[in-house]
Amino acid sequence: MKIAILSRNRKLYSTHRLIEAAEKRGHEVRVVDILRCYMNIASNKPMVYYKGEALEGFDAVIPRIGASVTFYGAAVLRQFEMMGVYPVNESVALTRSRDKLRSLQLLSRKGIGLPVTGFANKPDDVKEVIKLVGGAPVVIKLLEGTQGIGVVLAETQKAAESVMEGFMGLKANILVQEFIKEAGGADIRCFVVGGKVVAAMKRQGAEGEFRSNLHRGGSASLIRLTPEERSTAVKSAQAMGLNVAGVDLLRANHGPVVMEVNSSPGLEGIEAASGKDVADLIIQFIENQAKPGKTATKGKG
What we know:
single chain, Rossmann fold, 27% strand, 3 domains, alpha+beta
């Protein structure tokens, strides 16, 4: 098979591992920098070009698209779909998962456990929204934030009001969520491939840090999931329409709650913690699924 990986940097751990796994299984791999792609959006023969060359003959495309280039990356991925190339994650699923508010609304519609979440536009509604989620302490999140950036724990009512009013003054869109104290600064990353949880790890925040992101000094360790956690992760990925996803859960007193569903989950932490060859499992999934023109969202925006 001929596989394209949409990535800005072939030296990144996840990209490198996918190349390694695909080549080991006898596939031809090409890394394509999304921002260097340009497109001919024609009805008779849609095409993606890269540094003057038409990108043709690919069987599958793996999007490794960073949050900062979601809009252009999704457009390039959509063009590959129009050309009949099988996407590991479809463009619609990618944009759906990147919109924090939309993704929570979709998860809520499916009855999946979530932290109580509030959303408002005007400073006049700040007090009511804080009350809505159960009062301080609350977690305030920028909708556009990634890797723990733009996530604030406000421990008092006054602090929560000040932070929310500050963000609103900057015209930033924010979510307010209940603080799951019993999680103890830890979350669980479930790695889903093709409707199955293939690996999981517990991420523990550094001392004094409520965010558990590995980029912020958190540590990862192997964890055994409960059947409910496994089921929640699979349902969350399916609700987004993602074949490959990193689903982040918290262990709340009333069961698992989903924090986020990631459409380009990193492989380094999960492979180290679980000892699983996740990259190989992704390539195996492509081998079983990739068929020309097999994209459910083709022609549906």
